[in-house]
Amino acid sequence: MVIPSVKAVWPSGKRVFLQHDNAKPHVAADDPEVVAACSDGGWDMSIKPQPANSPDFNVNDLGFFASIQSLQHKKKARTIEDLVSNVEEAYNQLEYSTIDKVFVTLQSVLQASMNVDGCNKYQLPHLSKEQLRMNNGLLPPSLTCNDNIYDKATILLSSIEQDKSEGKLTYSFPSATSRQESTPVFEIIKTTKKSKKPRLSQHEKGRIEGLREGGLSTRVVAQKTGRCTHTVRRITAPAQPRADPARPGPPPALSDRDTRRLVHAASRGDSSAAQLKADLNFPVSVRTIQPTLAKVDRLVYTKMVNTLPLTLKDYGMNFIYQQDNASIHVSKRTVEFFSEQEIQVLNWPSKSPDLNPIENLWSILSRRVYANGRQFDSVQDLKVALFDAWDNIPQALLVSLVESMPRRCVEVLAKNGNKTHY
């Protein structure tokens, strides 16, 4: 599709080179269908793949894509469709004058690279494009190439072609008037690639330390030893003790010692968090003490042991303990505990949240915490919001949930165990 489009707008009497980068979707230059399409109709057209690692030789990478990207980045895209739409709109907004300037820059880049034997270590001069505009207001379609640059590039290409034909793995850096002596490729790599220096020996370290102690500067020592200034500083700088990594977030409200005192006091009786705070005279809130105690497994177990005797005290043995099938409720240790205490546990049907009013309470709590789409920046903020919402739930609501149990059971029976409106 590209080749017919080029033929439609390009003078047929001129030679055409189509250049693309080496992206996978692009076809090979010697593809039979491509070769046939290029020569169809008597056209002198061929494809020249872009040299590797040469984005500055591609007019699209040089300025076209960058211009579109800067335009579409001005708009936010929440979906892929938005991104595609923004790119298309940026493409339509791109002015012809911008593309005109990019093509002029490309020609200047090619000349600059030719002057340094195809390398990308060149300095691109300021072109003053506005001064290059012709009488019709357009930039010139082509720039005049310096004769010396042209001759130098021609000789270089000729030498490369000759070396290829002779099977030599060599590369030369010819001047415009004479060819220099050829240098094997591995020698070029050896001399141009920055090699990693060997490790410092103990003798070298001692010499560096001695030169510094003798009053020589870091720069002078580096020159005398053939090492960089960073290495010299690393060897001669006094060893610094490694500091412990900074702990992220604010410091804990309770020190380790205070936490131990809190756990010890909580394990001795049935004091509430508020009572512990008052007894220990801690300058923290109750909501700070509660999660600290919740992290101690043995306190949770003690609470379970103390809670069931209270139930026995109030109701005797004439009760059935109910809980859902959460993993912590059906763990091996929990099951053994109920068996040891001879506590009868209700067999809980799976997927039966309508039989447990606590599920409704969790839902109410969640709606209050996340009201109006509220979000939280940290777990601690979420905990504070949960405790606040819990404290503000009226007792009458809890009573109504408990009193709904008979109605729940009747409705489940009426629907043969299917879900209810609860």
UniProtKB/TrEMBL annotation:
Residues 324-383 form the Tc1-like transposase DDE domain. GO terms for molecular function: nucleic acid binding. Residues 201-212 have a biased composition (Basic and acidic residues). It comes from the Eukaryota. Gene3D superfamilies: Homeodomain-like, Ribonuclease H-like superfamily/Ribonuclease H. Residues 192-214, 233-259 are annotated as: Disordered. Transmembrane segments: none annotated. This is Tc1-like transposase DDE domain-containing protein. Pfam families: DDE_3.
